[in-house]
Amino acid sequence: MQLALYEKYDLRLPRYTSYPTAPHFHADVNGEVFEGWLGDLDPAQPLSLYLHVPYCEEMCWFCGCNTKITKTYKPVNGYVTALLTEIEGTLGKLPTDQKFTVSHIHFGGGSPTILKADDLRAIMAAIRSRLDILDDAEIAIEMDPRTATDDFMEAMVECGFNRASIGIQDFNQQVQTAVNRIQSMQLVRDVIAKLRSHGIAGINVDLMYGLPFQTVDSLRETVDQTVELCPDRLSVFGYAHVPWMKKHQQLIPTEVLPNTGERWAQYEEIQNRLAKHGFVAIGLDHFAHQADGMARALSDGLLHRNFQGYTTDRAEALIGFGPSAISSLPQGYAQNDPALARWQRAVEGGKCAIEKGVALTSEDKLRRDIINELMCNLAVDLDPVCASHGISADRFAPELERIKAMTRDGIVEVQGNYIKLSELGRPLVRAVCAAFDTYLNHAHGRHSQAV
Question: Sign of torsion, CA 218 220 223 228?
Fold first, then answer.
């Protein structure tokens, strides 16, 4: 019964890390528009920063990120120089009557661990010269354990990092070979131990399902091995096979990928196994210890979602740096040029390297709030959400009609204007959100499977 439902609703849908979603960004939002948005920000409100490092030493064949492979440091050094220029130029566009504060900093990639320790220090120094980092700010970085040196981890401590996200994906050797990501459990264990010895207590880990040669049994073993490492949070992502977008994924033969039924079985095994180990399910694909801040945010109704997934960060403005990075401001979204060379030329020429974006309408903001409630809390009461926007929830009668089939199938429960997903429906939350997405039928791109 469950498999039949999952096959029925396992549509290719957005991940809803924003609304409107990235396929609907357009060139009308450019550097000049973005500069105007920056100039209107309120210094009394803390900022969130995202810094993209678009380099790796080796390509993982499952990768969907914007990254390049390099065996020498010269291009990375040039990138760091340009990034420092962008930080200075972009933050220089903020209002100057009061110094802004920062509540959250996240380095992503690519592999930020490809940076030299001194370059990491230089980037953080550039940020601190312009902004005040709050004492309780979360400063996080994504780490490839294969390239995480002792010098780099010492620099993390000096720079105030307090959370690290470790890419594991899978510990099974056959799976690792099939996706070109070879790393032992002992290596990961050693890196995490060193981080904790340096006082970096927040540990996230990433796992994946739907990879070649994965089975329910092999994933159960990987989950049990991962739990031995005592992470605070886990992100569990379904592999998105999009070789039409990421050419290197053509190196993964389609015939060795699990089918839809096998993917669902893997997802359910991971979810059930982590529950047995005491982890709280967070939204669609995250898990956390009950004492962790993310679990508390879920309990308190304060969980949020941004381009990195689920987060405790509540800053209204997120500024992105580096090629392809997306800024989320109260006025709308703006994405940097994903082409490294064009991005670099723009910032070195003193310009904001914005390629596209979208200005939010009042309708967008309303639907974004509804979708965010569904994605974070698996429930939404349309009455208070609509009241906060000064309208009646009655206008969503067509959407409620649209999800009636899901009600009959036990995916959601609807009482008046209150919508709640069942546990059966948790993995299909994106399908419920899609009922409120007015852009979806006009998508310009192809999305990954819902699970």
Answer: negative
| Residues in CB range of 95: below 8 A, 6 or more apart | 39, 40, 41, 43
Contacts with 364 (C-beta within 8 Å, 6 or more apart), sequence order = 19, 20, 358
For residues 134 and 137, what is the distance between their CA atoms, to the nearest angstrom?
5
Q: For residue 64, give the nearest of 249, 235, 212, 251 by alpha carbon.
A: 249
* Alpha carbons 93 and 40: distance in angstroms, whole number: 10
Interatomic CA distance for residues 45 and 32, integer angstroms: 22
**Residues in a beta bridge with 109:** 53
Report residue 410 CA to chain centroid gap. Answer: 29
Geometric angle at alpha carbon 210, from 209 and 211, rounded to 5° = 90
List the chain pLDDT tens, one digit each, 451 residues: 477 777 777 667 889 999 999 999 999 999 999 999 999 999 999 999 999 999 999 999 999 888 999 999 999 999 999 999 999 999 999 998 889 999 999 999 999 999 999 999 999 999 999 999 999 999 999 999 999 999 999 999 999 999 999 999 999 999 999 999 999 999 999 999 999 999 999 999 999 999 999 999 999 999 999 999 999 999 999 998 989 889 999 999 899 999 988 998 999 999 999 999 999 999 989 999 988 999 999 999 999 999 888 999 989 999 999 999 999 999 999 999 999 999 999 999 999 999 999 999 999 999 999 999 999 999 999 999 999 999 999 999 999 999 988 999 999 999 999 999 998 899 899 999 999 999 986 444 444 555 6
